[in-house]
Amino acid sequence: xxxxxxxxxxxxxxxxxxxxxxxxxxxxxxxxxxxxxxxxxxxxxxxxxxxxxxxxxxxxxxxxxxxxxxxxxxxxxxxxxxxxxxxxxxxxxxxxxxxxxxxxxxxxxxxxxxxxxxxxxxxxxxxxx
Length: 129
Known about the structure:
The protein is mainly α. It has a domain at 3-92. It has 5 helices and no strands. Helix 2 packs antiparallel against helix 3.
């Protein structure tokens, strides 16, 4: 990716998502004005749009199915936005803090107590699994 295409991607992201504080204010206004259904529709529409832009930015459907990049960086940002926006729409701040703490503790427990094998992820090793 050259510098010009990177700058265009940043401009597109700013146009789609904007600053996180702006997103919070927009969702709060959408919740107040149109209700929860309107805010959820907005979050889902924006998440899907970001995901599709991520697929096309990483080569679109020009690659065959196994080589299609479904979870690039922009796609993961879209999924994180989608889930965070839905949580914001359905839970109060106290519940959000509890959910955040639970996710952090769960992630810590997963990383600490679940063993992983020491393998190299090459195509031949993955095919043997």
